[in-house]
Amino acid sequence: MEIQFEEHKICSHDGTMLTGYDYGGSGDTLVLIHYLGGTAKAWHPLIPFLKNHYRIVGYDLRGHGNSNQPDHGYTFEDTAYDLESVMNHFEIKKAHLIGSSYGCMVGLYFTAMRQDRVLSLANIDGAIINDSGEHGLYDETLEEHLAKFEGQLDPDYESVEEYQKVYKEQWLPWNKERANYIADYEPRLKDNGKVGNITTGETMMKIISEIYYIDFLTWYKKVQSPILFLPAEKEDHFQKSLTFIDLAKRGLPYSQTVVIPSSTHLMMFDHGKELAEAIVKFHSEIPISQKTL
């Protein structure tokens, strides 16, 4: 199914131009926030299952897709200003936020700091475990952590065809949803004449560095909106994520945890229907007292 949308150019607080997408629909508004290195088109497998329930808006995060990629502005406060600019542009007073991976972190920070603009937040395998610290995945310094990515964040490809071939071989389980995303993805032409990801290695490093020492539990303590946790069952740190989610839920007024069987990190590509059903069900079960916040 071809996804229909209107494309909008949106100016953020520091002059960075963002690209937003209005997918139409009616009802409460969903704002979709994609993962690190992705684009808003990653949500296309999910949208047909949600279109009859909501008005849907998405956008390319700064440094991603058709949005500008400045040298600066990758703090979470910057991402909050960006999301606020998107909502203001589309005249959205309050919305349900849906995040994937890094998009969950963007949504969580916004929910903690801009409480009056958020109806609820759904975290799809993101902001459900820290990178470092007591409840973190890694026992290493930021410098050691970044060193592991040396040469991996922005590889060269000889052509768009090679780019697509490598993803078909490595981005598993390969299916039509992934194939459609890669077919629509327009890699950037590098200064060396090669082809690469839209988001540069330098931008990726800045965002990874911004994330590394954050304790998401401090953000959850400030949240009053309902939260849906959707950890991916197939991820190696699934059990650690469940333990972290239990800690995060302690201070939340209302939350649910849903595990979709055999779900992967980017589950919109593998379990779009089940993911949409979980989101719609969660919203329908939010207590009236929470909806009036």
Tell me about this structure.
With 293 residues, the protein is of the alpha/beta class. It has one domain (6-135, 215-291): Alpha/Beta hydrolase fold, catalytic domain (Rossmann fold). The chain contains eleven helices and ten strands. Helix 2 (76-89) packs across helix 3. The termini are far apart. The model has no long low-confidence stretch (mean pLDDT 96). It holds the Pfam family Abhydrolase_1. One of its GO terms (molecular function) is catalytic activity. One of its GO terms (cellular component) is membrane. This is AB hydrolase-1 domain-containing protein. InterPro entries: AB_hydrolase_1, AB_hydrolase_fold, AB_hydrolase_sf, Epox_hydrolase-like.
